[in-house]
Amino acid sequence: MIRSVVRGFGAALPKQVVTNRDLEARVDTTDEWIVQRTGIRQRYIAGEGETTASLGEAAARAALDRAGLTPADIDVIILATSTPDNTFPASAVNIQARLGMHHGAAFDMQAVCSGFVYAMATADAYIRGGLARRVLVIGAETFSRIIDWNDRTTCVLFGDGAGALVLEAGEGDGTTADRGILTAHLRSDGAHREKLYVDGGPSTTGTVGHLRMEGREVFKHAVGMITDVIEQAFDATGTTADDIDWLVPHQANRRIIDGSAKKLGIPPEKVVITVDLHGNTSAASIPLALNEAASDGRIKQGDLVLLEAMGGGFTWGSVLLRW
Ligand code: ACO
Question: Is 250 a catalytic residue?
Fold first, then answer.
């Protein structure tokens, strides 16, 4: 049985760090309020010359280096982003060009904060379906460029960054002992689309627009949706919370992460948290967190790793993989 196995990982962050104290000078907020409600202490904000594609390229190069591969070895690039450099072409082809890659295919995937989970599930389907042998899966965002910097209820939450994985076809025997993606579950419900959206777009206003969010509404649905798709992953594989070595959640809010882990019975020491360092980087948050925990030796080959995300749309999903 073909499995999509992680061969390399990497990440990239903008140069500029913006702390909660820095934001106190900009809007009516406090470090204490932000830390207490979200767990965020700082975030990275893209400066001049730093874009979704430039950050994505840097993360992709780091992942290729770690895999001992070059762009020539990649068949498909999937970029999860809601903040592309241009309306079109896809920023994935921008990254493809920056990598000097002229073969294969590259496309963007838009599922907001769930984008990386959607991209992983898609890459897995490509690999298992024989359409690709190696897929570069990237999550890259510059949410700072769609934030209303006068809106204290949203501007304190988000940050910029990118992370990437190289997935490669490997042989498995069809059991949960296999390395690679074991199961993926995607959901969406457009009835909730106006609870978290951007108030502009090419076909409506002809502008880029700004992020708008009913924070309390998002919060209300998040834990239930997240735990639902994780239960689906457990059911599909016959695994339980006890089998999980690492939960690597989308990093939106510490309270949502803690609430979901608690409801599932996953102890805090098995949960990878980076929201304090990066803020909410949307589709980039999971690969950034994977990069942290795999670089510092927490996530090791053979570990059972559970990814989950929930975001605008609403979209939500889970991926269970053996590292
Ligand atoms: N600083 C200080 N005060 C603030 C700030 C701020 N940055 N933002 C809002 N407040 C005030 C509000 O104005 C309000 O004041 P009032 O009571 O005088 O009206 C008070 O704080 C409470 O506001 P709430 O919106 O009720 O605060 P809440 O406890 O719900 O926390 C938050 C807000 C953090 C956004 C929370 O709702 C949340 O985490 N929601 C989930 C949304 C999320 O994480 N989204 C990320 C994107 S989606 C995703 O990735 C899953």
Answer: yes
